[in-house]
Amino acid sequence: MLKSIHQLCGGAMLVGAMLLPQVHAAPVVSTIDFEDPELTNLYFGGDTFTASGFSFLVNGGPTSGSFATVDTAASYSGVKAPKGNATQFFGAFDDNALEITRADGQLFTLLGMDYGFIAGKSYAPLAMPGALRIQGWDGNGNSIAPITVAWSADPLGEFSFHGFDLPAHTTTGLSKLSFVACIYDANDACTYPSDNLGQFALDNLLLATHLDGGSVPEPSTVALLMLGLMGLGLRRRHLKS
Question: What is the pLDDT of residue 30?
Answer without folding.
Answer: 93
